[in-house]
């Protein structure tokens, strides 16, 4: 097995291993690379939905089916992320998956099925590196603070269906989902490293702050999250797989391919409730 770091802060490619039948020793190396590099990439794997589920289950207990995404027939936990002719992708946002849950996912396994002739890359970002880059005074100001995360980020998206009565699927489902309060700075449960825990899609506002000042704070924090030095960009190929640590990263889907067909399968692993980092 060959592990090649792709940048100083995030990302590694892993070659010369079969994910469908890797040994315990090989998986231990893969898992350590996952913790060290935060997102790991593989080529020419071509996993079936069942094999993808089995691989994801080696990282932990699987999440329930996604409330909005369609899924592979017969495999409700294998979500389908797809663009078809006449159905281009909507606006893309930097995000950490499903932070509107009390316990957001630990990680995701994303497998490319078919791709456009050009474009459609995905970019990942180390939020640990972002946190380290914050000025000390700003770090101190975040001590003990929380922000509200909500499912509103799906409203009006291509995953938001409207029924015969004109009611939004997202609105109906989200009405039963309470807003969640997560620390602005969390600690990784396995490495102990701090991470800035915000994202543009689901982080709605800062608690205990007036609206204008809270928006200014989030805007400032988001600006630190756009630094290319802390990112890695992946060009998909059919059979490519990305596995990322959802506890300390964000990602962004580049929607530069119009309505050319693009299909990926995603399986998500359950995580724990984020804990505040106590030593700021």
Automatic annotation (TrEMBL):
Residues 3-267 form the TauD/TfdA-like domain. InterPro entries: AtsK-like, TauD-like_sf, TauD/TfdA-like. Keywords: Dioxygenase, Iron, Metal-binding, Oxidoreductase. It comes from the Bacteria. SUPFAM superfamilies: Clavaminate synthase-like (SSF51197). GO terms for cellular component: cytoplasm. One of its GO terms (molecular function) is metal ion binding. Belongs to the TfdA dioxygenase family. This is Taurine catabolism dioxygenase. It comes from Enterovibrio norvegicus FF-454.
């Amino acid at each position: 097995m060959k592990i090649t770091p792709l940048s100083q802060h995030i990302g590694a490619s892993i070659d010369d291993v079969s994910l469908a039948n890797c040994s315990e020793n090989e998986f231990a190396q893969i898992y350590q690379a996952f913790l060290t590099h935060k997102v790991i990439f593989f080529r020419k794997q071509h996993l079936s939905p069942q094999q993808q589920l089995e691989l994801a289950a080696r990282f932990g207990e699987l999440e329930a089916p996604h409330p909005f995404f369609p899924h592979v027939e017969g495999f409700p936990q294998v979500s389908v992320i797809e663009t078809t002719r006449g159905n281009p992708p909507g606006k893309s946002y930097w995000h950490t998956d499903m932070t509107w849950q009390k316990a957001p996912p630990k990680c995701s396994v994303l497998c490319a099925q078919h791709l456009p002739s050009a474009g459609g890359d995905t970019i990942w970002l180390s939020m640990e590196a972002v946190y380290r880059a914050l000025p000390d005074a700003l770090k101190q100001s975040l001590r003990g603070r929380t922000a509200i995360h909500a499912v509103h980020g799906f409203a009006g998206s291509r995953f938001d269906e409207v029924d015969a009565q004109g009611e939004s699927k997202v609105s109906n489902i989200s009405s039963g989902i309470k807003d969640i309060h997560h620390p602005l700075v969390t600690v990784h449960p396995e490495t102990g490293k701090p991470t800035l825990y915000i994202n543009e899609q689901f982080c709605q506002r800062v608690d205990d702050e007036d609206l204008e000042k809270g928006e200014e704070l989030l805007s400032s924090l988001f600006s630190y999250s756009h630094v290319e030095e802390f990112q890695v960009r992946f060009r998909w190929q059919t059979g490519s797989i990305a596995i990322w640590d959802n506890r300390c990263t964000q990602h962004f889907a580049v929607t530069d391919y119009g309505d050319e067909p693009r299909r990926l399968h995603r399986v998500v692993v359950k995580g724990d409730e984020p804990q505040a980092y106590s030593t700021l």
